[in-house]
């Protein structure tokens, strides 16, 4: 068994909020996350975060397009990210596939051209499905809001016996694939969070905090959790306390996109004020995980992740592209 080391002794940041972009402590904040674990769990399980029967039914219908497997690996892309997707698949074929057995890779087509889809189905060594937009509210068609991501992950969890791995097209696997999956199996959750990352409220609109019944300043000491890579174990706790509340937020316009516009997603520049931009699915994910775990959240962070480009197990490389990998395979 792997000897697991975690960051569970790490605390939320206590530095003064001089540069408010990074995690910091605001002395005049009138609220804080409860120290009572049961209270936090019951809050997450409250009706505001509970899927309706109709919403659950829709996700179950979607899940039937996903094959059952012990471990399900997920990614998604539209036509404008096809070259990044090809580079990611090359990395999977080279690093992940040789060491993993009984894993099913499911790719979600969010708008590939017919030619791109045909190439993918022939060369990817994955199961290609489409998102059933007709089953969901009209605003799901705006891909930049990322409503589809928590729905996709929950649908896959309905078909996974052990683990669900989600990754964006920018993710690059390094060594230690089996070690990382063993960490996920033992801890039930693995989060990819760089040590130097902005806090939650600067990149989250206030309307999302209002929907969740939270004060933004409560979350200033906590870094946002990127939603570009994570591993979830099939447990009732993970499903009911993390994935279902996240999916519920995706269904609720006032939660995921509270008076938001596409331009709000630009968080590339450092700002010195709250609610300067909005990360949609990532903002909701970050609040829910922090609300649930408080400082214990750090226990689930993947170790030795200084920056997005310097992770031990995976890194982020948004410039990586391969324009011809699928054609090369098929020659």
TrEMBL record:
Name of this protein: Uncharacterized protein LOC106076738 isoform X8
Domain of life: Eukaryota
Pfam families, sorted: DUF1647
InterPro entries: DUF1647
């Amino acid at each position: 068994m792997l000897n697991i080391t975690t960051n569970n002794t790490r605390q939320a940041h206590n530095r003064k909020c001089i540069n408010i972009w990074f995690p910091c402590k605001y002395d005049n904040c009138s609220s804080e996350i409860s120290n009572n674990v049961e209270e936090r769990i019951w809050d997450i399980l409250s009706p505001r975060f509970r899927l309706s029967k109709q919403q659950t039914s829709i996700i179950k219908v979607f899940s039937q397009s996903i094959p059952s497997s012990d471990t399900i690996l997920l990614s998604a892309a539209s036509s404008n990210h096809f070259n990044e997707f090809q580079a990611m698949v090359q990395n999977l074929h080279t690093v992940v596939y040789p060491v993993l057995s009984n894993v099913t890779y499911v790719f979600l087509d969010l708008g590939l051209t017919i030619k791109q889809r045909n190439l993918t189905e022939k060369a990817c060594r994955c199961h290609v499905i489409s998102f059933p937009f007709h089953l969901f509210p009209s605003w799901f068609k705006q891909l930049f809001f990322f409503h589809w991501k928590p729905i996709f992950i929950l649908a896959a969890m309905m078909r996974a016996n052990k683990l669900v791995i989600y990754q964006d097209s920018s993710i690059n696997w390094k060594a230690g694939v089996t070690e990382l999956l063993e960490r996920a199996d033992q801890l039930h959750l693995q989060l990819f969070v760089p040590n130097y990352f902005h806090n939650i409220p600067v990149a989250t609109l206030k309307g999302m905090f209002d929907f969740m019944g939270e004060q933004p300043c409560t979350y200033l000491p906590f870094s946002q959790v990127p939603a570009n890579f994570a591993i979830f174990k099939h447990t009732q706790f993970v499903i009911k306390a993390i994935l279902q509340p996240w999916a519920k937020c995706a269904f609720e316009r006032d939660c995921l996109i509270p008076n938001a516009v596409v331009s709000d997603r630009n968080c590339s520049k450092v700002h010195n004020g709250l609610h300067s931009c909005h990360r949609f699915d990532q903002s909701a994910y970050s609040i829910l995980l922090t609300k649930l775990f408080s400082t214990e959240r750090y226990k689930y962070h993947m170790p030795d992740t200084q920056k997005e480009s310097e992770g031990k197990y995976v890194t982020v490389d948004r410039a990586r592209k391969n324009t011809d990998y699928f054609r090369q395979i098929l020659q």
